[in-house]
Write a structure and sequence with these properties.
By secondary structure, the chain is α/β, with parallel strands linked by helices. The chain has helices at residues 6-22, 38-46, 59-72, 109-122, 144-156, 165-174, and strands spanning 27-32, 50-54, 97-101, 128-133, 135-136, 163-164, 177-185, 189-196. The chain is built from 6 helices and 8 strands; from the N terminus they run αβαβαβαββαβαββ. The strands form 2 sheets. Strands 2-1-3-4-8-7 form a 6-stranded mixed sheet, with helices on both faces. The longest helix is centred in the N-terminal third of the chain and has 17 residues, at 6-22. The radius of gyration is 16 Å and the shape is globular. The N and C termini lie far apart (48 Å). This is DUF938 domain-containing protein.
């Protein structure tokens, strides 16, 4: 039942360093599109004061997460919930942070819209939404590997593809969030930090 994603071993340590700087000391972290569940186990082990709630719309992915969760026996790692970021149904729970790794480019735009909308509604003021993956940036030459990856994604599904950071920023702003940090990561990826702003 357990699935493995080779990219996890490459990015989990750099991501952990960023999470250590951006996550709160306690509370619940909702991971959107948890995939295999390997990230959830790794982060829950390294941040024991945080409660980790993985999620995924795919039943096979959730089965993998369950297998990893049961093997880990981590008390702060919950069983996964079924969650499609592009749908209206989101759990109404008290969150301290949201994390989304490698979903935005392998999903329809409605998933990013739903993610930002939910973050704007569910996160308290100052709480982070942390995104990781490849993005397109203005005035920055896109790596050939990312351009080829973008083309391959669109060949599989025209609704997929690397998103411009500006589009993500505008979507965040419409939902009461603001990008506070951009971090270059291995393999031409980025970590983007958005935080919930106070009411004006």
């Amino acid at each position: 039942m357990k699935r493995n994603a080779p990219a996890v071993a490459r990015n989990r340590e750099p991501l952990t360093a960023i999470l250590a700087e951006e996550l709160p000391d306690s509370g619940m972290v909702l991971e959107v599109a948890s995939g295999t569940g390997e990230h959830a186990v790794y982060f829950a082990e390294r941040f024991p004061e945080l409660h980790w709630q993985p999620s995924d719309p795919d039943a096979g992915a959730r089965a993998s997460i369950v297998a990893w969760q049961k093997e880990s026996e981590l008390a702060n790692l919950a069983l996964p919930i079924a969650l499609d970021a592009g749908e209206e149904e989101w759990p109404e729970c008290a969150l301290s942070a949201m994390l989304c790794i490698n979903m935005v480019h392998i999903s329809r735009w409605a998933a990013s819209e739903g993610l930002m909308k939910a973050a704007g509604r569910l996160l308290p003021q100052g709480a982070p939404l942390i995104l990781y993956g490849p993005y397109l940036e203005p005035d920055v030459e896109t790596a050939r590997s990312n351009l080829e990856f973008d083309a391959s994604l669109k060949a599989r599904n025209m609704e997929w593809g690397l998103r411009p950071i500006g589009a993500m920023d505008r979507l965040a702003e419409r939902n009461g969030l603001e990008r506070t940090r951009r971090v270059a990561m291995p393999a031409n990826n980025l970590t983007l930090i958005y935080r919930k702003q106070g009411t004006k």
